Amino acid sequence: MKTSTLSFAGAAMAALCLIGCSSDQQQTNLAPKHNGDPLETAYPRQSGTVQSGTYRGQPITYRAINGKAVYQGDIILSTSDLSDADHATEGTGRTLKSLRWTGKIVYYTIDPTLPYQDRVTAAIAHWEANTAIRFVQRTTQYSYVTFKPGGGCSSYVGRLGGQQFITLGDWCTTGNTIHEIGHTVGLYHEHSRADRDNSVTILTQNIQPGYESDFQTYVQQNKDGFDQPGGFDFNSVMMYHSWSFSVNGQPTITKKDGSTFTGQRDALSPLDIATVQAMYP
Ligand SMILES: [Zn+2]
């Protein structure tokens, strides 16, 4: 780790780097973390308050932290996601397609105060090398994503319309950035697949109270979605690790044989790429 990283981020961030990663390492496989943090969290070490709300017609719990509705650790729900007005139009289907980026182009800006901007350029280069999505610096376009600094890694799922954000804490790596861009183009977490119960066991007794709904499938959440053919992908860059949101150090997700797994944050997997291709033909 560069000393400049430490001096910039301070002791608290150095502690976070022990469990996460450093931007200059651009780590390969992260060691499994038994403290219960998933690989991406919007507000590390901030639990906020557990709130109940309606998301796409389904009651869910989420965390209210710093005025944001945080779901599944690193997904920020927009106010319209949680409003009754949105629910009222739910029948017309705010389909996933409506949340896709027109012309496969993601317009973006980078907040000039964001440290280690090479994380963003490297993640964008990875996406462009492996998918049809293109990233163009925003000039006057209405819808765009801004990469901005913050305490953790987070994103909205899909294109909201207007400005939206990918937040990157200093400890978020290129791999974490690839993951967050995945949310921005419309990918859910892999364990949200409708057919996931064929491949994983959710150990509810080990989940931190209030986080149970983070382990629901998109069907259970009443979201529109699809399962890419090819089966459950433990190698997905959108996959949690086995100890995500653990309350007691025991796994919250295992394979059907009870074995544990780590989430990789090296690259989009072949199935990730196929999923994006299906969404953006
Ligand atoms: Zn995520």
TrEMBL record:
Residues 90-281 form the Peptidase M12A domain. Residues 29-54 are annotated as: Disordered. The keyword Metal-binding applies. CDD domains: ZnMc_astacin_like. Residues 44-54 have a biased composition (Polar residues). Keywords: Hydrolase, Metal-binding, Metalloprotease, Protease, Zinc. Zn(2+) binds at H179, H183, H189. InterPro entries: Astacin-like_dom (IPR034035), MetalloPept_cat_dom_sf (IPR024079), Peptidase_M12A (IPR001506), Peptidase_Metallo (IPR006026). Its cofactor is Zn(2+). The active site is at E180. Binds 1 zinc ion per subunit. This is M12 family metallopeptidase. It comes from Fibrella forsythiae.
